[in-house]
Write a structure and sequence with these properties.
Length: 357
């Protein structure tokens, strides 16, 4: 009996007495096979202990299949969006593979290219691309420069969810973006319209995402409209995206801005930590300090004091992405026109910053 490593479809065909094509149809669950053929082939498979090599099978496919989602877990919005979209695809019985890219992979370089030559050891994303041979790639939350440098030459269609890209010119890409500059502008204007005169900002490091740069620009626009200048060293405290960082960052910020009466926070975790520290220091919310967050999350409505925020419509986002997915995976579609589609959003007012009158 041949070793399990050397058992092939031809081996099964020879020992079962059926053709290679018939064996292949049985292994792939295809129709057109008689009950006797299926029983004979199944009996030989069990006797030989044959185990199908799924990786090799997928790589041998002539036609790509499945959807590969690559997401940078840099903020709660992208993580939630990726999970919602994965569930929506699974609900339609579509094969989907969701992968979170870590910071180490961001430094390794290398583009995903369909049919490109391997050079050195492939990173996780490239291995999965080669394994699943997707018909569509969804890229979520990846920095502008990284998108264009590493993924700009992929030949299969792609859906991109990221900060708006001015040089978006890929014929087989569709981009979905939130207008982060406008959202930050409106959030800052809300604080000014609520009577705040001394506004401070808590934000993650700019290098972590393109959206951070766009949001800072929006805050600057709001300050300019009030004949003020946002000087980062005086009114912006950079901290990591966590409750502890927000807790510590708020204390550092009030040393910069002792008369602080308005707080703009970029991430929900930072907002929760900052609100806790403000309470410890005796601030009354919203009488002494009004707080607005540029990213809504479930935790913000259940904090001790509900935090006003910019809210995304996740259900509508799922529908937009699903429609794009169905269009790009249609066998009749070989590409699409360059498209930039703005994701829907709205302002949610809670106790920390009531709606301005």
């Amino acid at each position: 009996m041949p070793s399990k490593d050397k058992i092939t479809v031809r081996t099964i065909a020879e020992q079962s007495g059926w053709s290679v094509g018939t064996v292949s149809r049985v292994l792939n669950g295809a129709g057109g096979v008689s009950d006797k053929a299926a029983a004979d082939i199944t009996r030989v498979i069990r006797r030989l202990g044959y185990r199908r090599n799924e990786s090799a099978s997928v790589l041998r496919q002539k036609h790509p299949s499945g959807i590969l989602i690559l997401v940078r877990n840099i903020c709660s919005r992208y993580k939630a969006l990726a999970q919602h979209f994965e569930q929506a695809l699974q609900a339609r019985s579509m094969p989907v593979h969701l992968i979170y890219l870590d910071d180490e992979q961001a430094e390794e370089g290398g583009a995903l290219e369909n049919g490109g030559e391997e050079s050195g050891e492939m990173d996780q994303a490239q291995r999965l691309y080669a394994l699943y041979n997707p018909s569509l790639i969804v890229l979520i939350g990846i920095h502008r420069e990284e998108l264009l440098r590493k993924y700009g030459r992929i030949s299969v269609p792609a859906i991109v969810v990221s900060a708006q890209m001015s040089d978006f010119d890929r014929p087989n890409w569709m981009q979905f973006y939130s207008p982060d500059t406008e959202i930050a502008l409106q959030g800052t204007e809300t604080l000014f319209a609520s009577g705040c005169r001394s506004i401070g900002v808590l934000c993650p490091p700019r290098k972590s995402a393109s959206e951070i740069e766009d949001r800072i620009l929006g805050v600057q626009y709001a300050f300019y409209s009030r004949d003020q200048v946002l000087r980062s060293q005086e009114r912006v405290q950079v901290c990591e995206n966590s409750m502890q960082a927000g807790f510590e960052g708020f204390e550092l910020l009030i040393h910069k801005v002792p008369d602080l009466d308005g707080l703009l926070v970029f991430e929900p975790e930072q907002a929760i930590g900052a609100l806790r520290k403000a309470a410890d220091l005796g601030y009354r919310i919203p009488e002494d300090l009004k707080v607005f967050c540029l990213e809504d999350a479930e935790m913000l409505r259940y904090s001790l004091i509900g935090i006003s925020a910019a809210k995304r419509d996740t259900q509508q986002e799922d529908e937009l992405l699903m429609n794009a997915c169905m269009k790009l995976t249609d066998s009749a579609v070989t590409g699409c026109r360059n498209r930039k589609i703005e994701l829907p959003w709205s302002m949610i007012y809670r106790q920390s910053c009531p709606r301005p009158e």
